[in-house]
Amino acid sequence: MRFRTLCRLLALVPVGFGLAPLGQALGAAAELGVRHRIDVMVSAEPDAPVLSRLKGAKGELSFTVRLSANSKESKFFGMLRPSFPDIVVPDGAGKPLVQQTKLWEEEVCHQRRGLPKVTVTQLGGHFGEGEGRIEILAINRHIGVLVPPDELTPGIKLDPGSDSFGVFLAFRAQTRNSRLNVDLKIYPIDCFL
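RE: above sequence
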């Protein structure tokens, strides 16, 4: 009797060891990770010269965004340079110059390691034609360099929120003289590693 019980237990040992890696694989697959999406929207303050003088005028904007999103599974560092060539200045302050647009999205799911570091470093463009044309060139302040005429202040933290894409954290870069806002929304998207 004891011999049969011992044989049955010994027969189960290889089966138990064979299932152990499967259990680890299933546990690893169920680990929750994240990937990020960054959207951009451009708006004007109510007292912006563009809104007060050029309602309905056409223009274009382009800007530079420095992005660092590094994890063990995915590494990205670089400058993104989106441009919007066909902007029409709205007739009111509540409407954006550039509708919310996807700027960047990670393709790889990775461990949760914080948010990507994203900074708007330059904003340029123009609105209108002829004598009423408004040129925009706003850059960040740099150590050892004179303050630019139209200084760009990045990293203004906005309230978190949610919309049809999910929950987001938002940051704003604002120009001092041209009174434009570049809003960046960072969406953390849950995924399985």
